[in-house]
Design brief:
It is a single chain. It is built from 14 helices and twelve strands. With about 375 residues, the protein is of the alpha/beta class. The protein is elongated, with a radius of gyration of 25 Å. The strands form three sheets. It has a six-stranded parallel sheet with strand order 2-1-3-4-5-11, sandwiched between helices. The longest helix has 18 residues, at about 345-360. Helix 8 (about 165-175) runs parallel beside helix 9 and helix 10 packs across helix 11. Strand 3, helix 7 and strand 4 form a beta-alpha-beta unit. The relative contact order is 0.12. About 45% of the residues lie in helices and about 15% in strands. The protein starts with 5 loop residues before the first helix and ends with a helix.
């Protein structure tokens, strides 16, 4: 028999999609008769495998899942740990599921709900401009974390994020204030429609506002097979250097990319920040201890993870409707960025060093 959707179940039962969702989640605000009818129709049409259907009827099933798209992104590590701890305190089990880069996180969510006993889901990373009909097929409460949801473009749902456009603008504007005009960027794949697109749009807007011509040669996109990793940052920066592109600053859209970029620059004899300033995004711990320490936009990871857990459990308990929470990021200026040294300033500095050496007979 053909697999049907939650909307099909609702239509056959003569109820709304939200009512079917409440039946799946054992909410107290649904009559036993309605719940029994919905579960019966689900069983008849094999919407949920028999073993999972029996589990759905058990009131003691307490589990949530964290679906992660981009397991190599170190930014998620702390967040996952906090979510696991919050679940433990609520006496819930927490299942970590990896979603492949090319896969649909919504399809993965629908499948994992069928296979496991879930009350809710937290999504980390991914793209959430899916059709409304697709989003409505997720039969449990969920929170989209680290990806901002623009209500005019997507199905409204619970989300926790920073404003990636605003925070990216802040970083690029800071680099411009240091005197840099040739600013390269390591960006997401060209067809990205999520945070990567927002961070690139902000980059272009700063250049426009500052009267700096946009140069496509300064933009390096990762491929669909690549992700926000040290290796990707290294390879994309090597491409820039091998192509002979001239730039004085490099904005990488994650700290992991920034660290990889610094390695590539050092191998080719470039000094950071004396020759090229490097800036990242996220605020991962390793960025503070790398040499040079990485200038970044720090996302409030603990606050974001805590709010994600709070929202999810509030929705599971029927105490809150889906809503968006946007946190402010923080521009953290460290060793990897500095002011652009103009040629005349460099020559002046050389002359002063020469005079000092003659005066103190150091050569």
């Amino acid at each position: 028999m053909e697999q049907i959707t939650i909307r099909d179940i609702a239509r056959k039962c003569g109820v709304g999609v939200s009512t079917v969702s409440r039946a799946l989640n054992n909410h107290p605000d649904i009559s036993p008769e309605t719940k029994e009818m919905i579960l019966k129709v689900m069983s008849e049409y094999n919407y949920v495998p028999n073993n999972s259907a029996r589990n759905l009827k058990r009131s003691d099933a307490k589990a949530i899942a964290v679906l992660v798209k981009g397991m190599d992104n170190m930014f998620f590590n702390t967040m996952i740990s906090i979510l696991q701890e919050k679940a433990r305190k609520k006496k819930y089990s927490c299942i970590i599921e990896r979603v492949e880069e090319k896969a649909s996180e919504v399809d993965a969510a629908i499948e994992v709900v069928k296979e496991k006993r879930l009350r809710g889901i937290v999504f980390l990373g991914g793209n959430f401009e899916h059709p409304r009909e697709k989003m409505e097929q997720i039969p449990v409460p969920y929170v989209v974390t680290t990806v901002g949801i623009r209500e005019k473009e997507a199905f409204p749902c619970a989300s926790v994020s920073v404003d990636d456009y605003k925070e990216s603008y802040k970083m690029v504007d800071y680099l411009c204030s240091c005197g840099h005009r040739r600013i390269a960027i390591l960006a997401a794949c060209e067809d990205d429609i999520s945070i990567g697109r927002l961070r690139l749009e902000a980059y272009r807007k700063v250049l426009e506002d500052r009267g700096i011509p946009y140069d496509p040669a300064l933009v390096r996109h990762m491929s669909r097979q690549e992700n926000y990793s040290f290796g990707t940052g290294y390879q994309l920066t090597r491409q820039l250097l091998e192509d002979g592109v001239e730039f004085t600053a490099l904005y990488t859209t994650s700290d992991t990319l920034a660290i990889g970029a610094c390695r590539a620059l050092r191998e080719t004899g470039k000094r950071v920040p004396e020759d090229i300033s490097v800036a990242g995004f996220d605020g991962i711990d390793v960025g503070a201890y790398y040499i040079p320490s990485i200038t970044t936009i720090r996302q409030p990871v603990e606050a974001m993870a805590t709010e994600s857990a709070r929202k999810l459990f509030a929705m599971i308990d029927g105490k809150e409707e889906p809503s968006a929470k946007v946190f402010d990021g923080e521009l953290v200026i460290r060793e990897s960025t500095g002011p652009l040294l103009q040629n005349d300033n460099v020559e002046s500095l050389k002359r002063r060093i020469y005079r000092w050496k003659r005066e103190f007979r150091t050569f």
